[in-house]
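WP5 quarterly update. Target: HNH endonuclease. Source organism: Allokutzneria oryzae. Length: 241 aa.
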Amino acid sequence: MIRIARTPLPVEVAGRLAALTERLSAVPRGTRSAHARRLWRTNPDRRTLRTTLAEMAPGRQHCMYCGDNQGTDIDHHEPLSRNPLRTFDWLNHLLACSTCNSHEKRDRFPVDSAGAPLLIDPTVEDPFEHLLLTLSLGAYHPLTAKGRATIEVCGLNRPLLTRGRVQAQRVVILCLREWSRARDAATRARAVLTVREQPFADVCQSMLRQAALPTAELVFSDSPGVVELLRTPELRSALLS
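Structure tokens (predicted):
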């Protein structure tokens, strides 16, 4: 999971979504969720929402939760069943794969004792403030209660993902070394594009962060020269842009 920059919607689309929220607010509370579902299913602006989310997503439209599968669903971060008035709230929409959306997260939305959300919204906060990726294992370690809840709700440490992150790190290292050997800009650009297009963007982002720490040599002890590459300003800028 990485930080995602949210793109504004076209003014006319945002206006229509706001009007739908107004309609829902006039519906009795007891029937509001069912009414919201009907309006959502028939909403013609869903295509625009999906397209905009895809443009925001990392790599080739990957899921904003697991970072592995292609994002196929518009997820309501705060579930429609919990707060139907956020059904058409653009700030409540994320791109998710069907596994994360329908099998892992579902309608779960944990909150703390004060009612504050415990599920990370990557368009609002930096996931790395709550999660530490152990690169050698491909597994997340929680740094906060919010990180712990997000790992559990989204299944971020399911075996398929941990294996995929380990493999993604191998690909990143191969591309870094190809970049360092390249004698022309085109080859370097292809190496960077390979990293940026592959699944698990969180792996490269975590590598870049951990390379800046005093413990970097220990973290990358099995990969000689990688720390120096990850600290190269030109390469860092290309991978972070």
